[in-house]
Design goal:
By secondary structure, this protein is of the alpha/beta class. The protein has 23 helices and nine strands. The chain has three domains: 102 residues, Fumarate Reductase Iron-sulfur Protein, Chain B, domain 2; 186 residues, no CATH class; 120 residues, Rossmann fold, CATH 3.40.50.10700. The chain binds iron/sulfur cluster (2 copies).
C-alpha cells in the first residue's frame, strides 16, 4: 500500500515536471542519439510525449515505455538546450523508477543492484575475484591504449576493447585518510567513485598528490559507496536509497568544507540528482543531502579556485605533445564546467593544447546504454574519434572515467594509438 502511494505521488510529481515542455523540438538538434537514428521517439520531446500519458501507458504497454526510455544516454544535452528549463534527465530517471516499481525488477537485476552494488563491501569482494580471474578471459593489455579484448565471446564485453580492472584497486593502495589542513586551505572530503577506484586508481592518486601539494585537509573514508547512477539508471529506487543513506552516514562523520570528485558523473549526480531523488526516496535525509551537494565540486573547478595555478612554472619545451580535450556531458552540459579544464591544459607547458571539433559531443557510452546498444554507442563514439584525429592531438584529456573507457575503446577499435588521460593526471605529473 505504501509503495502504491509512493508510486502515485511520484507520478504526480512527474506530471508537474512534464507540464512545462512546450514541444518546441529544440532538443532534437542536440540529441546524439537522434543524430544517428532520426527517430522522434529517441529525442527528449518524443520520450516526454510518451511519459505525458504514463498512467495510461503503464496499463497498455509498460514494457514498450521501458524500452523507449532505455534508449537514452542520459547525457543531458536536451536539458542544456531546452528554453523552458525541462529537467529531462531527472524526469527520465524518475520515470524509470516508476516503471520498474510497476513492472518489478527481474530477479537477476534485483540481485546485482540490491545485493551486490548497494552493499559496498560485497561489491568490492566480488570485483577482487574478477580482477584476479580476468587474465584468463582477456587478451594482453595494449601498452598505449591500455585496453584488452575478450578471448572468447562474452556478452557483457562483446567486441569492446575494455580497460581491465586494476590488479590492486585504489582502496587497497591507500588507507582511509583523515588529516587536518596544513595551511589556511580548506578541509576537503574525497569522493573516489567506483570506476576511478577499480579501473583508474592513478587518477585518485593524482588527486591526493594535488591536494597534498596545496596543503588541504583530507577526509577520505573508504567505506563510501557508489554515487548511485547505475542503480538509478536501472530504475531501482530502493538500491539508490541504500547507497545514499550509507554515503550520507559516512560523510557526516567529519566536518569538511568541500567534497571533491574527479568523476564528472559522480559530481553531477551528487550535485543535481541526489537532492531531487532524496526528496522522493528519503525525505528525512534531504537537508543533509542538500548540504553535501552544495559543497560538492569537480576537481578541475577546485584546481582553478584553490590550486594557485598562477604559481605553475613555465619551461620552454622545444617538442611538446599535442593534447586535446573531450568535454564530459555531465560536466559541461549538466554543470556548465568547460573553461576550467581548458585553463589547466593551457597552463601545462609540456603540452600544446589543441581544440577538437565538436569537443562537447557525447562520447556515446551512457552507462548501460553502451552495453545494450553497442552499435549505436559505436556510431556515436566513432564521430568522436574522427574529431580527435582531426585535431592532430597525441593525447586526449578528459575529466570523467566513463568517457575515458569509451574513448580508449573507440580509439583502439579504430587502430588509433593515442593516450587517454584524466586532466588531473596530467596536472599531477607537472608537480
Ligand atoms: S524538452 Fe524542452 S527543448 Fe525539448 S520539446 Fe520540450 S520544451 Fe522544447
Ligand atoms: S539525455 Fe541525451 S540521449 Fe537522452 S534524449 Fe536527451 S539528448 Fe537524447
Amino acid at each position: 500500500m505504501a509503495s502504491l502511494r509512493k508510486l502515485i505521488s511520484t507520478l504526480d510529481s512527474l506530471e508537474d515536471d512534464l507540464a512545462i515542455c512546450m514541444r518546441c523540438g529544440m532538443c532534437q538538434s542536440v540529441c546524439p542519439l537522434y543524430r544517428e537514428t532520426r527517430l522522434e521517439t529517441d529525442v527528449a520531446r518524443g520520450k516526454l510525449t510518451i511519459l505525458d500519458g504514463l498512467r495510461r501507458e503503464l496499463l497498455d504497454n509498460p514494457d514498450g515505455v521501458a524500452r523507449r526510455l532505455r534508449r537514452c544516454l542520459l547525457c543531458g544535452s536536451c536539458q542544456a538546450r531546452c528554453p523552458s528549463g525541462v529537467k529531462s534527465v531527472e524526469i527520465f530517471l524518475k520515470a524509470r523508477i516508476i516503471i520498474s516499481e510497476y513492472n518489478g525488477l527481474s530477479p537477476i537485476k534485483r540481485l546485482i543492484l540490491r545485493k551486490i552494488l548497494a552493499i559496498p563491501r560485497r561489491f568490492h569482494r566480488i570485483l577482487n575475484i574478477f580482477a584476479r580471474c580476468q587474465k584468463f578471459f582477456l587478451t594482453e593489455t595494449d601498452p598505449v591504449t591500455e585496453t584488452s579484448r575478450a578471448r572468447i565471446f562474452l556478452p557483457l564485453i562483446g567486441k569492446r576493447h575494455i580497460k581491465p580492472l586494476a590488479t590492486i584497486p585504489f582502496r587497497e593502495r591507500v588507507p582511509s585518510i583523515y588529516q587536518p589542513p596544513r595551511t589556511d586551505a580548506p578541509m576537503v572530503a574525497v569522493f573516489v567513485g567506483c570506476l576511478i577506484d577499480r579501473v583508474f586508481p592513478s587518477v585518485a592518486e593524482s588527486m591526493l598528490t594535488v591536494l597534498n601539494s596545496i596543503g588541504t585537509g583530507i577526509y577520505m573514508p573508504l567505506e563510501q559507496g557508489c554515487c548511485g547512477m547505475p542503480v538509478l539508471a536501472s530504475g531501482d529506487g530502493v538500491a539508490f536509497q541504500n547507497l545514499l543513506r550509507q554515503n550520507i552516514d559516512v560523510f557526516s562523520r567529519k566536518r569538511f568544507d568541500l567534497l571533491i570528485t574527479a568523476c564528472a558523473t559522480c559530481t553531477a549526480v551528487i550535485k543535481e540528482i541526489w537532492p531531487v531523488m532524496a526528496a522522493v526516496e528519503c525525505p528525512d535525509l534531504l537537508k543533509k543531502v542538500c548540504d553535501m551537494s552544495e559543497k560538492t565540486m569537480d576537481i578541475t573547478e577546485f584546481l582553478v579556485k584553490y590550486g594557485h595555478l598562477d604559481k605553475i612554472s613555465e619551461t620552454a619545451y622545444s617538442e611538446r605533445l599535442k593534447v586535446t580535450y573531450h568535454d564530459p556531458c555531465h560536466l559541461r552540459k549538466t554543470l556548465g564546467i568547460w573553461k576550467e579544464p581548458r585553463k589547466i591544459l593551457n597552463l601545462l607547458d609540456t603540452y600544446e593544447f589543441v581544440e577538437m571539433p565538436d569537443a562537447d559531443g557525447c562520447c556515446g557510452l551512457g552507462g548501460s546504454f553502451g552495453l545494450e546498444y553497442d552499435n549505436l554507442s559505436e556510431r556515436i563514439g566513432l564521430r568522436k574519434v574522427r574529431n580527435i584525429v582531426a585535431s592532430g592531438a597525441d593525447v586526449v584529456a578528459t575529466a570523467c572515467p566513463a568517457c575515458m573507457i569509451q574513448l580508449a575503446d573507440m580509439l583502439s577499435r579504430t587502430g588509433n594509438s593515442k593516450l587517454v588521460k584524466h586532466i588531473v593526471e596530467l596536472y599531477a605529473d607537472k608537480l
